[in-house]
Specification:
The protein has 139 residues and is mainly alpha-helical. It has one domain: Rossmann fold (3-Layer(aba) Sandwich). 43% of the residues lie in helices and 8% in strands. A three-stranded parallel β-sheet has the order 1-2-3. β2, α3 and β3 form a beta-alpha-beta unit. α1 packs parallel to α2 and α2 runs parallel beside α3.
Length: 139
């Protein structure tokens, strides 16, 4: 969850990593408002920019869910709203935003069932899609 990332950020930033790929927030939607989550995103991104300015950060969208496969307490309308806020922060801080959400959608706007067994967690096939989507940013 985003508050956990905030608590664990110190040792990461002290190491001054070359790159950070950030995707977090879907679990936050179980307990927190979209506004609170996007506020935490802003805090995370600002801290990275300030405390590790040479780190290249790739802000990734949160992925969709599929409540037809199995009912979750997370809904795609909230994920879309969260992704809008995440994208806004990424642009404001001047980090690239990678929209992965659309890559995993079925024709009904849900996480494609071929990519999940439980409607929220990815399977191996989905991880290959994700890997291919970010491969150009990894060296």
């Amino acid at each position: 969850m985003t508050d956990g990332v905030l608590r664990r950020l110190d040792p990461i930033l002290e190491a001054e990593p070359r790159k950070i790929f950030l995707m977090i927030g879907v679990n936050d939607l179980i307990r927190h408002s979209v506004e609170d989550i996007t506020d935490n995103y802003g805090l995370i991104l600002k801290r990275i920019k300030k405390e590790s300015p040479s780190t290249k950060v790739y802000v990734q969208s949160v992925l969709p869910v599929n409540n037809q496969v199995r009912q979750t307490s997370v809904f795609n309308k909230d994920i879309i709203q969260l992704n809008d806020g995440i994208e806004e922060w990424a642009h404001q801080i001047d980090f690239p935003y990678l929209n992965l959400y659309d890559l995993f959608l079925d024709e009904n706007g849900n996480l494609d069932a071929k990519y999940t067994q439980d409607g929220i967690h990815l399977n191996g096939k989905a991880y290959l899609v994700w890997k291919n989507a970010i491969a150009e940013y990894i060296d």
